Amino acid sequence: MNSLTDNVIMLKVKAGDLDKMGLLFARYNRQLYGFLFHMTYHREGAEDLVQQVFYKMLKYRHTFTGTGEFIHWMYSIARNTLKDTYKSKKQQVRHENVDDMVEQLSGGMTPEEQLEKKQAKAELHKAIEKLSDDHREILALSRFQELKFHEIAQILDITESAAKTRVHRAIQELKNIYTKNGTLKQ
Questions:
Q1: The CATH number of domain 111-180, selected from 1.10.287.990, 1.10.10.10, 1.10.3720.10, 1.20.140.10
Q2: Residue 172, CB half-sphere, CA atoms under 13 Å: how many?
Q3: How many CA atoms lie within 13 A of 94 on its CB side?
Q4: What is the pTM of this model?
Q5: Which class for 7: exposed (0-12), middle (13-18), buried (19 or more C-beta within 10 A)?
Q6: Fewer CB in 10 Å around end: N or C, the chain?
Q7: Distance between CA atoms of 132 and 150, rounded to whole angstroms?
């Protein structure tokens, strides 16, 4: 059963074989959680959003055509769910944690090096919080989800060159914010 493509599985779900959604959940729940966590930095909120996305995929399975890739359809639903959540709460979810974008240092760090790393991580967290939602989203897709530019372009319904440009601009904005905080040495 693992040899079935995502599109074939989703078309089976669309046809009424709802048990097949479990296969898609097993394949994508961690990846989807990673994306939603990097958008909200709220563990429980991201877990809830994953459940909402899979619920909406079941609810709106009739809209899946199978012509595009399943993952793009899934991310579109995830993005819309995230936007709906922000609209209904009328506030951003408070950021709790940030994955380590600071380069992994080798073992045997001194206490001073550990403190510096912790401070750099905190500053990066603050800088990411200051990014616009669009820039945080594109960085989550490109850096954390490691999607290719053509995949990002399909998800966001833009050209591949526009996706490259947006990623570049988001990185520049992050660098500018990080530099203003006095953390990044040029």
A1: 1.10.10.10
A2: 6
A3: 1
A4: 0.64
A5: middle
A6: C
A7: 22
The distance from CA 96 to its chain's CA centroid, rounded to whole angstroms, is 16
Cα–Cα distance, 48 to 52 (Å, whole number): 6
CATH number of the 6-89 domain: 1.10.1740.10
Handedness of CA 130, 132, 137, 139 (dihedral sign): negative
Cα–Cα distance measured from residue 119 to residue 111, given in angstroms and rounded to the nearest whole number: 12
Classify residue 54 by burial, with Cβ atoms within 10 Å: 0-12, 13-18, 19+. Answer: buried
Q: What is the DSSP string of 105-133?
A: PPS---HHHHHHHHHHHHHHHHHHHHS-H
Q: Tokens in use for 123?
A: 């500053």
Going from the C-alpha of 119 to that of each of 110, 124, 127, 184, the distances in angstroms are 14, 9, 12, 11
pLDDT digits (tens, 9 = 90+) for 7-51: 999 999 999 999 999 999 999 999 999 999 888 888 888 999 999
| Structure tokens belonging to residue 107 | 């073992």
